[in-house]
Specification:
Layout: E1 13-19, H1 34-46, E2 51-55, H2 68-84, E3 89-92, H3 96-104, E4 109-112, H4 122-129, E5 133-136, H5 154-171, E6 179-182, H6 191-199, H7 201-205, E7 212-213, H8 219-222, H9 239-252, E8 256-259, H10 262-277
Parallel strand pairs: 1-2, 1-8, 2-3, 3-4, 4-5, 5-6, 7-8
The protein binds pterin-6-yl-methyl-monophosphate (PMM).
């Protein structure tokens, strides 16, 4: 039976990002060695993260995929060490074998940006393990996904696709109660699509599933306030913007937020909660 983590204070769970990659857009290479990744995971927990999302494949637009062996080599030692240290670990992967081995090493949740579409074996692994499954809106691998960023109505299209995908997964044996839906900010989405999805989050929430929001440090946040033709703010200068979008998601009732820098997001979510709870 899948059990989704929740926070006692009513805020969304904070999923801290642990990228064990040389090339992620926001922190590529910084935590590439297992010891550095584990130390970073511990820091995220100390800052208040409820979950650590360990990934070994960069999904930034244009990224090439690592081999399955390389992905396993990157993530397994980090998953097992963080789980042994008592952290709740999710494995961020599109590969069934990586998910299965990470679960065996102590991960208790699978986060698949393809929602099980990239590897037909994923559904069976998740169904057999009975663990929560994050299903993101996805239109193909990062190599060329931005060529598919075209929507009649992005909120309606994403909602329709996510709910259809949830039904397919349930029909294949995945527990409905373990599903978490994610609109997939930045994945086959232009900046305007991401803003529409943030505004339309109530419609995603109305599908009736827990929702994860992952806007952290994404490119559209770096363009706010920058004049036309100017350089976007670099990823490390997007944490205030991330805190604002995460607090917005929290106020609307998201189940979780996925962030690189935990403290500003927690602070912003607490402020938003205090406003909502004021008499
Ligand atoms: N974004 C990234 C990676 N994994 N998983 C989910 N569920 N949702 C996301 O928005 C998401 C994800 C890309 O960001 P990163 O390279 O900084 O981890």
């Amino acid at each position: 039976m899948s059990v989704l983590p929740h926070r006692a204070d009513g805020l969304p769970v904070v999923m801290g990002v642990v990228n064990v990659t040389p090339d992620s857009f926001s922190d590529g290479g910084e935590w590439f060695e297992p010891e550095a990744a584990v130390a970073h995971g511990r820091e995220l927990v100390a800052a208040g993260a409820d979950l650590l999302d360990v990934g070994g494949e960069s999904t930034r637009p244009g990224a090439q995929r690592p081999s399955p062996e390389e992905e396993l080599r990157r993530v397994l030692p980090v998953v097992s060490e963080l789980a042994a240290a008592g952290a709740t670990v999710s494995i961020d992967t599109m590969r069934a074998d990586v998910a299965a081995q990470a679960l065996a090493a102590g991960a208790t949740l699978v986060n698949d940006v393809s929602g099980g579409l990239a590897d037909p074996g994923m559904v069976e692994v998740v169904a057999a393990a009975g663990v929560p499954f994050v299903v993101m809106h996805w239109r193909g691998h990062s190599r060329d996904m931005q060529s598919r960023a075209s929507y009649a109505d992005v909120v309606a299209d994403v909602c329709e696709r996510l709910s259809a995908r949830a039904e397919e997964l349930v029909a294949s044996g995945v527990e409905r109660g373990g599903l978490v839906l994610d609109p997939g900010f930045g994945f086959a989405k232009l900046a305007a699509h991401n803003w529409s999805l943030l505004k339309g989050l109530p419609e995603v929430l109305a599908l009736g599933y827990p929702v994860l929001v992952g806007t952290s440090r994404k490119a559209f946040l770096g363009r706010v306030g920058v004049p036309e033709g100017g350089d976007p703010r670099p990823p490390l200068e997007r944490d205030v913007a991330t805190a604002v979008t995460s607090a917005h998601a929290a106020a609307l009732g998201a189940w979780g937020v996925r962030v690189h820098n935990v403290a500003p997001t927690l602070d912003a979510m607490r402020v938003s909660q205090a406003i909502q709870e004021a008499q």
